[in-house]
């Protein structure tokens, strides 16, 4: 048994998925007797306090990314690039300060490129080595990505090495000292098979504004045409629960309540974000996915899982719901000891 270590977990703030997928990792670290701190914005603090109320959370500002209202996300990211590089620079300073103040042994950064310190063992978590974009630019994107990731001691990829959920996003060449640690989900078991469901459709909304709100409005508009009961989980912690006609709206749900609503829902409609895919893999629920317009990673994952598991998708601008809308399940979750092996490999 290794001696207890002080470990800081720092997820990216582009939606809640980076925080929720850190939950099973933190659980494993606590089981091993380590002291864990969390770091991030107020939304990630809500997630962590729900699961680990006694852990200390350090609040820092996020990247505050915004998508475009149309499908020009590449241009939007380019315009915001100076802000991102500035944030990466200041993250280094924050990480050094926290390393000294908390006497950290390890920093585990989920997609925060600058969150590492000189005197700690630094681990980077990512499912996206090969950033999708124009073919002429993908070699440049890969070079920049690997340059940042290789500054960390280890890179953990939340996927299987074979039969992957991430497809070509985690194909070679990979960062130095990379390990596949298996998919990470806060859910632990498949949804129950039920003869009768409370909700015909459940919409799960996620991601940065303004596309989060546009997607939410689209789902509510389409669900309002249905005679059956429907539900929406909005991913906006500032809103309140309400019911209007056939639609039940939940701004946010704790994991147990989230699992209950999923159990009570026949079909799921959501973004094909990687955290959603990992969750739906273990939940074994039928889904239909709508990529964020112009978000190349989601567009790729939607096409990949259509070919792999026949999970249907369509562009947001063309989405309407009817009895002909087809729902299918993602690749089933496979329990492994990959995470335990990765923890052991780095001395945890």
Question: Can you describe this structure?
Answer:
- This protein is of the alpha/beta class and 348 residues long.
- It folds into 2 domains: 6-183 and 335-345, Rossmann fold, CATH 3.40.50.2000; 199-329, Rossmann fold, CATH 3.40.50.
- The chain contains 10 helices and 14 strands.
- The strands form 2 sheets. It has a 7-stranded parallel sheet with strand order 3-2-1-4-5-6-7, with helices on one face. A 7-stranded mixed sheet has the order 10-11-9-8-12-13-14, sandwiched between helices.
- The chain is globular, with a radius of gyration of 20 Å.
- It starts with 5 loop residues before the first strand and ends with a helix.
Helix/strand class: alpha/beta
Structurally, how many domains make up the residues?
2
The total count of helices amounts to 10
Named at the architecture level, the CATH assignment of the largest domain is 3-Layer(aba) Sandwich
| Fraction of residues in helix | 25-40%
CATH class value of the largest domain: Alpha Beta
Stated plainly, the CATH topology of the largest domain is called: Rossmann fold
Oligomeric state of the chains present here? single chain
The strand line-up of the biggest sheet is 3-2-1-4-5-6-7
- CATH H-tier superfamily of the largest domain: Glycogen Phosphorylase B
How much is the radius of gyration in Å?
Answer: 20 Å
Low-pLDDT parts are none
Give the integer mean of the pLDDT values: 92
The main pleated sheet reads as:
7 strands, parallel
**Can you write the helix and strand succession as a string?**
EHHEHEHEEHEEEHEEEHEHEHEH
Distance between the termini: 9 Å
What's the β-strand tally?
14
Shape: globular
| Strand-residue proportion | 15-25%
């Amino acid at each position: 048994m290794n001696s207890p270590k002080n470990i800081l977990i720092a997820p990216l703030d582009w939606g809640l998925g980076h925080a929720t997928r850190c939950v099973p990792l933190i659980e494993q670290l606590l089981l091993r007797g380590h002291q864990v701190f969390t770091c991030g914005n107020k939304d990630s603090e809500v997630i962590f306090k729900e699961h680990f109320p006694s852990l200390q959370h350090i609040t820092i500002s996020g990247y505050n990314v915004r998508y475009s209202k149309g499908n020009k996300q590449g241009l939007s990211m380019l315009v915001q690039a100076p802000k991102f590089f500035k944030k990466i620079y200041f993250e280094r300073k924050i990480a050094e300060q926290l390393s000294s103040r908390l006497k950290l042994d390890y920093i585990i950064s989920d997609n925060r490129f600058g969150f590492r310190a000189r005197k700690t063992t630094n681990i980077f978590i990512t499912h996206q080595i090969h950033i999708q974009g124009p073919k002429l630019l993908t070699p440049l994107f890969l070079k920049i990505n690997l340059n940042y990731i290789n500054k960390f001691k280890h890179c953990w990829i939340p996927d299987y090495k074979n039969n992957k959920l991430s497809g070509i996003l985690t194909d070679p060449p990979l960062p130095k000292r990379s390990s596949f640690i298996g998919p990470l989900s806060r859910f632990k078991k498949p949804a129950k098979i039920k003869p009768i469901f409370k909700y015909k459709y459940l919409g799960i909304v996620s991601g940065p504004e303004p596309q989060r709100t546009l997607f939410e409005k689209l789902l509510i508009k389409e669900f309002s045409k249905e005679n059956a009961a429907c539900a929406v989980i909005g991913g906006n912690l500032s809103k309140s629960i309400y019911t209007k006609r056939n639609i039940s709206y939940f701004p946010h749900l704790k994991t147990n309540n989230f699992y209950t609503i999923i159990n009570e829902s026949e079909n799921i409609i959501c973004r094909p974000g990687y955290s959603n895919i990992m969750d739906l893999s273990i939940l074994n629920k039928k889904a239909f996915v709508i990529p964020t317009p112009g978000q190349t990673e989601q567009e790729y994952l939607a096409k990949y899982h259509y070919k792999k598991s026949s999970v249907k998708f369509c562009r947001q601008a063309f989405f309407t719901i009817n009895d002909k809308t087809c729902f299918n399940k993602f690749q089933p979750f496979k329990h492994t000891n990959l995470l335990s092996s990765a923890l052991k490999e780095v001395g945890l």
